[in-house]
Design brief:
With 104 residues, the chain is of the alpha+beta class. Helices cover 41% and strands 17% of the residues. It has a three-stranded antiparallel sheet. Helix 2 runs antiparallel to helix 4. One of its GO terms (molecular function) is malate dehydrogenase activity.
């Protein structure tokens, strides 16, 4: 029950879900897709831009798979409990630089 599962094969989100559903006796929190790396990258980029620590970023989601087609969802993410766009006013950076950095 303490096993940690990381899925690296695309479509990694889908494959992680399939794996999770086929192991009903294991806690869902033990399953991760490779996009977790992308989530961490996105959190770090937002934290650096906002001048806060990484642990102040919440609700960060990566839509899609670990590739350049993924979409880091800054619209639903929060910094210190506040929507990202209230803290980081640079919309161009969010829509372009941030997204491209996380994707690549």
């Amino acid at each position: 029950r303490n096993v940690k599962v990381i899925v690296v094969g695309n479509p990694c989100n889908t494959n992680a879900l399939i794996c999770l559903k086929n192991a009903p006796n294991l806690p869902a929190k033990n399953f991760h897709a490779l996009t977790r790396l992308d989530e961490n990258r996105a959190k770090c980029q937002l934290a650096l831009k906002a001048g806060v620590f990484y642990d102040k970023i919440s609700n960060m989601t990566i839509w899609g798979n670990h590739s350049t087609t993924q979409v880091p969802d800054f619209l639903n993410a929060k910094i210190n409990g506040r929507p990202v766009k209230e803290v980081i006013k640079d919309t161009k950076w969010l829509e372009e630089d941030f997204t491209i950095t996380v994707q690549k």
